[in-house]
Amino acid sequence: MILLQGKGVSKGVIKGPLYFFQRPDTTVNKVEGADIEAEKARLAEAQAKSMEQLETLAEKCREEAGDESAVLFETHAMFVEDEDYVECIMDTLAEEQCNAEFAVETAGEQFAAMFAAMDDAYMRARAADIKDVTRRILNNLMGIVDGGIDSDVPVILAADDLAPSETLQLDKSKILGFVTQGGSGNSHTAILARTMGIPAICGLGDSLKEELGGRVGYIDGETGQVVLDPDEITQTAFEAKYKKQQELKELLNSMKGKEDVTLDGREMMVYCNIGSPDDVAAVHANDGQGIGLFRSEFLYLAASDYPTEEEQFEAYKTVAAAMDGKRVVIRTLDIGADKQVDYFEMKKEENPAMGVRAIRICLNRPEVFRTQLRALYRASAYGKVAIMFPMITSVWEVRECKRACQKVMAELDAEGIPYNKDTEIGIMIETPASVFIADALAKEVDFFSVGTNDLTQYTLACDRQANDLGKFFDPHHPAVLRALKIATEAAHAAGIWIGICGELGADLSLLPTFLAIGIDELSVSPSSVLPLRAEIRKSIAKTCTLDLLKC
Ligand code: PEP
Ligand code: MG
Fold this sequence. Notes:
Elements: E1 2-5, E2 7-10, E3 13-20, H1 36-65, H2 71-80, H3 83-96, H4 100-116, H5 121-142, E4 155-159, H6 164-169, E5 175-180, H7 188-196, E6 200-202, E7 216-220, E8 225-228, H8 232-253, E9 269-274, H9 280-285, E10 291-295, H10 297-301, H11 309-322, E11 327-331, H12 359-364, H13 366-379, E12 384-389, H14 395-415, E13 424-429, H15 432-436, H16 438-442, E14 447-450, H17 452-460, H18 478-493, E15 497-500, H19 511-517, E16 521-524, H20 529-536
Helix pairs in contact: 1-2, 1-5, 2-5, 3-4, 4-5, 11-13, 13-14
Bound molecules: phosphoenolpyruvate (PEP) and magnesium ion (MG).
């Protein structure tokens, strides 16, 4: 039996084989003097496989979301067989006498550049499709597995740590849980695990060795234990815990359809945090009453070039429509710091958490901002969309954001495109500066949402990604809780609502404090909705105290 100890960051017990994430090398090298006939045969095989994959994806979309959503994959399938594109690949093969990978990459680059230079905005947007199709054919040529998991059965996914862009590409249906060498409770792997409602353990360090891959065992996301090849006694103990967990799930299911109201009638809105349109299924499954944080950066992280207005519009519209009139707070681009996107070509920074990130990038790059705002406003015609700006520190930033919104609304008016003129605008309170000037900021917007992950980091000067800060990284610190109180008083004085969308919102031990402070909304991972509801319905708001704010 092998026992490893890490830090549990998403609760639950699960049994399965350990599988190490395959980080593919996607670099294409030119091989000269290749056997052209053999390369053509390889290419034909890769094209056939790509077509097969795209047909499966289109079929899946059709079943889950109707004909319209399958169009993207059908278009990609057309590109795979496009006469000009294939001719270009063949010409390169013949001229360069090279390997198929090099010919495909060359043709992909040429076609993408050609589309990108076109006058028509729709045609320009097709450059991203060509890049996508090219990558798919290349992956099939190079034997790179889609989703990074080459296994027929679901696995416990092991990795050093997963980058945000990597978590987006994973085939989630194959993941039972996560174990990582590095990471922290705020890492994207942890956030993803909580969204999926599956266990995760981070900080296992060097004890998590690749040679353990294939061994079967249990992980416990509460205690942080990984047990491989368990003996009989351990197996019995884990099975008992697993059974209890399933019973608890059943019990929580009885909370579905009930109101988020305390015994003395105080309402608390319980919303969900999501990272992509796929997560809406989990919101419905857990009966979330709205979406309090849609991290829009998934669109940017998953792409190899700036996502177009059309692509963004489709994603936002899908979520807004699927929530059927319930509020959907979509946060504008929040990259930089730990979320790096190559094509933004950001300068390397000594201290990126305090560098050009989030709203600073948008205000520095008005075109990028405008594209996103246009997509957001257009989506507002299909549901109750609210727009939220991250990392605000100053009133002028908010005013500049609002001016950008007004400009976009005027454009849409002129073009006769429908949108909701009353779309709510809010900001994240996640810097100490925004807390100190919350009274002034509250006069500018319709709501606040506190990002406790960053607020804790900046208030306590503790890196949220670091694994070894231990007791110094304390989100329960009175300074953080007092910041919540200051922001809440400012919000309510201005007549606006305030929520928490950082991970602290799901901390059941703090619910009485949140009720005492007067927080109106908690936005949590979908899997935390029902436990939170159960706790709210047991609480008496008027007996809750501010004791934890004392030092
Ligand atoms: C936060 O900082 O608490 C937050 C919700 O935003 P993110 O985790 O995406 O930075
Ligand atoms: Mg944040």
